């Protein structure tokens, strides 16, 4: 199905608006993706079912938007993504991450702690991608942006 884009700009000084949204309508349930330009990284909030075939399209769009905004660091908030149906799905998403967001991209993926087993992360990392899957934003940002001192400096 075709993707529907809509944008909401609030600052004019960036190449991309700091907040914009993308919705992919599927047969079962829509995928909602919101992008927000943050200092030093692109925040991507995703809501929808856990589906590797749709995830490839979403990750492709994330890559396009990150490149357009000049971002290499990406924080994907996946707290509103459903649980994977099977282990193969984790593998397929790890492969897609490595293929679509290879170095120099650095991707931190937030997910519910009870659903993390590192299989998707290991799949992506073993294929050369810089990926971390974790359940806390603080840990994700520390890894994504550097050490604690460097992170605090960027927030000023």
Describe this structure in words.
With 156 residues, the chain is α/β, with parallel strands linked by helices. The protein has one domain: Transcription Regulator spoIIAA. It has 5 helices and 7 strands; from the N terminus they run ββββαβαβαβαα. Strands 1-2-3-4-5-6-7 form a 7-stranded mixed β-sheet, with helices on both faces. α1 packs parallel to α2. The longest helix is centred in the middle third of the chain and has 18 residues. The termini are far apart. The N terminus and C terminus are likely disordered.
Supply the key terms.
156 residues, alpha/beta, Transcription Regulator spoIIAA, seven-stranded mixed sheet, disordered N terminus, disordered C terminus
Helix count equals: 5
What would you call the shape? Answer: globular
**For this structure, what is the CATH class?**
Alpha Beta
The neighbouring-strand order within the major sheet is: 1-2-3-4-5-6-7
Specify the CATH architecture. 2-Layer Sandwich
Structural class: alpha/beta
| Domains (count) | 1
Strand content: 25-35%
Radius of gyration: 15 Å
Low-confidence stretches: 1-18, 148-156
Record field, number of beta strands: 7
Compressed to H and E, one letter per element, the order equals EEEEHEHEHEHH
